[in-house]
Design a protein that fits this description.
Two copies of one chain form a homodimer.
Chain A lengths: L3 E8 L7 H17 L4 E3 L13 H4 L9 H17 L3 E10 L5 E10 L5 E8 L7 H4 L10 E3 L2 E5 L8 H8 L5 E5 L14 H13 L2 E5 L4 E2 L2 E2 L5 E3 L5 E4 L12 E8 L1 H4 L27
Parallel strand pairs in A: 1-2, 2-3, 7-8, 8-9
Antiparallel strand pairs in A: 1-14, 3-4, 4-5, 6-7, 9-12, 10-11, 12-13
Helix pairs in contact in A: 1-3
Chain lengths: 296, 296
């Protein structure tokens, strides 16, 4: 029987450049989420550094390898919380990575600990679709996303704008993941009154199309003129939110907050949708060739 | 300059087996929509026959080739309406097709007429992803969808469950379509209070991901125990509905109705989304190989 996992998304407002403070505040949010029962905790994109950097010179001193102090702090927190609560803890979040070739990446880490506090995994995912000025700061990832086995199920990670490419979500979903964790920094954009941010709508569609849980963790606040919408959500494989941040047309009203939802992973492992249908088995890959045709 | 097109979706309640009556009522709905200004009119899936057939023996006598009387009736109506109003008319709708090899297909036609009433196109699309008992009635299409040039822009057609495969929507969107027309028969399914049918959410996501207009035309009513949700919508390339049928948790409350929306096709031809980004140019087809890998 797959477990029921309490998933948390900690919507925060990182301070640009304040890595030590951001990590401390995020670790504290993870601790509070675990004290409320969370096992799998998702943090925003670039939660260690903030987002709106002027250039690489400003960003580079704040970037770290996945073995560096920031990710290690989350790994140590996961281990300590697992030991304290006697159950596994998994933490996912975004950070500015300096990779093995000194290249800057917009990345996310996965750290986990078994129930006895021993480290279970440390993995990194590098964002493959870069948004706007990120193109001046980072080099996009060049590898498909890879599922990560954790003590709380098989999870996938994509980052923010990656979610706008359903081929990408499908690539990781086909690896049989239970939960797709998506650290995001979604800027506020105009939308009609009463409408959810379209980013949330797309995440809902992704969950339902692949029959997976999707946990988006957005940031809030305003940074150098950029305001974020605060669109965090934990979405069931049926596409409907189990938990959804509050937001208004002007964005960010919900502020910092942690959402929690109980996710029965069995719901993500039933891919059948009728006596005749399944979201994986009904695919017709032999007809999808246009999707991989090189750009002209 | 691409035109602004008034798109209509005519949400109807076909009567199972009554082809002559269904065609007459649908032609009347098209006429009324054009009188209200519509140029491109979308009708539900299987609008000529109804849906919940017991078996092929019941369905077969009602199926027709694309050159048959039902599709011809829509072509003639398009021509007459184009002449009357002095502007092009395009009609898209679902029908049970008996193809050139006497095979039953769940298909959609596109018929159009130029402003002078002369026929401009007659095309057929065969649903490639079949839902539930359709597998006992129809043979799925085995060709990718093909854009249809009409006097009102380049359009694409998919049918109902096809929309749950974003690879499929991408395949037609990459052909540079302005409007994706989706005849549907969406059964009512449980959903949380206040939530839209997830089918509408997926259509919204598709519109925004590919920056195209999406016009879904659903049916209503109850037929042999199947109730439809009536989730018709005309969606802007930003993903938000320009027009949306009313529905409640029990579905079908909106009843028969025609929605109209002005669609500035230029909005579907601007694929750029920031100084650095475009929904087509940002794709990384070289990394999407898993999507076309044969099922194991």
């Amino acid at each position: 029987m797959p477990p029921t996992v309490t998933v948390a998304v900690c919507q925060l407002a990182p301070v640009i450049g304040d890595v030590a403070g951001n990590v401390a505040r995020a670790v504290e949010a993870v601790r509070a989420a675990c004290d409320r029962g969370a096992g799998l905790v998702v943090l925003p994109e670039l939660v260690t550094t903030g987002y709106a950097f002027a250039d690489r010179d400003e960003l580079r001193p704040l970037a770290e390898p996945v073995s560096g102090p920031s990710v290690s702090a989350f790994a140590e927190a996961a281990a300590a919380l697992a030991r304290r609560h006697g159950r596994p803890v998994v933490v996912v979040g975004g950070f500015a990575e300096l990779d093995e070739d000194d290249v800057l990446r917009n990345s996310a880490f996965v750290v986990s600990a078994d129930a006895d506090g021993s480290p279970a995994s440390r993995a990194v995912y590098r964002k493959a679709h870069l948004w706007d000025d990120e193109n001046d700061l980072f080099v996009p990832g060049d590898q498909p996303p890879t599922a990560v086995e954790t003590p709380l199920g098989r999870i996938g990670v994509v980052i923010c704008y990656d979610l706008e490419f359903p081929e990408w979500v499908r690539t990781i979903a086909l690896q049989g993941i239970d939960v797709l964790c998506a650290p995001t920094n979604w800027p506020v954009a105009p939308r009609p009154a009463g409408e959810r941010p379209i980013e949330v709508t797309r995440a809902q569609a992704s969950a339902s199309i692949d029959r997976i849980f999707v946990a988006t963790c957005d940031r809030v606040g305003t940074e150098r003129g950029v305001e974020w919408v605060g669109g965090s959500a934990i979405i069931h494989p049926d596409g409907h939110p189990l938990a959804l941040a509050q937001f208004t047309a002007t964005g960010g009203e919900g502020g910092e907050q942690t959402l929690l939802a109980q996710c029965d992973l069995a719901d993500a492992r039933r891919k059948g949708t009728s006596a005749h249908n399944g979201v994986v088995s009904d695919r017709r890959p032999e007809l999808y060739g246009a999707v991989v045709r090189p750009r002209t």
